[in-house]
Amino acid sequence: MPALSEYSNVHNTALVILQRKGYQVWYDKKLDVYQAEKDGWDFMSPSPCGLLGVVAIFEEKKPTRFREYWWKEDAPDLYRNLPERPPRDYVPVFERK
């Protein structure tokens, strides 16, 4: 069992963190998505944790203006090449002594 995973009991925490960071947050019932906005930059995700994740990308990249694919990383394709097993020395936090 991981120390934290995306589940409905984490959703409120994600939304509170976004508000503390100064984002306006809301749920668009018609589109069934969560949205956030700050300083003219807007974000959308089907889950509060996903919304926090896309905001984290924005905060890491720090774009100064909008351009197509401003979020894209020119790096190896981890998404299609992730290992299927954890590293040998991996020990879940709840098993550590």
Task: Walk me through this protein's architecture.
The protein has one domain (8-63, 78-95). Helix content is 32%, strand content 16%. The chain contains three helices and three strands. It has a three-stranded antiparallel sheet with strand order 1-2-3, with helices on one face. Strand 2 and strand 3 form a beta hairpin. Helix 1 runs parallel beside helix 2. It is globular and about 45 Å long. The model has no long low-confidence stretch (mean pLDDT 95).
Q: Gist?
A:
The chain has 97 residues and is of the alpha+beta class. The chain has helices spanning 8-20, 48-61, 78-81; strands spanning 24-28, 33-38, 41-45. A hairpin with a 4-residue loop joins strand 1 and strand 2.
Secondary-structure blueprint:
Blueprint: H1 8-20, E1 24-28, E2 33-38, E3 41-45, H2 48-61, H3 78-81
Antiparallel strand pairs: 1-2, 2-3
Task: Kindly list the characteristics that best describe this protein.
97 residues; alpha+beta; three-stranded antiparallel β-sheet; 3 strands; 16% strand
Query: SS-based structural class?
Result: alpha+beta
Distance between the termini: 15 Å
Helix content: 25-40%
Total domains: 1
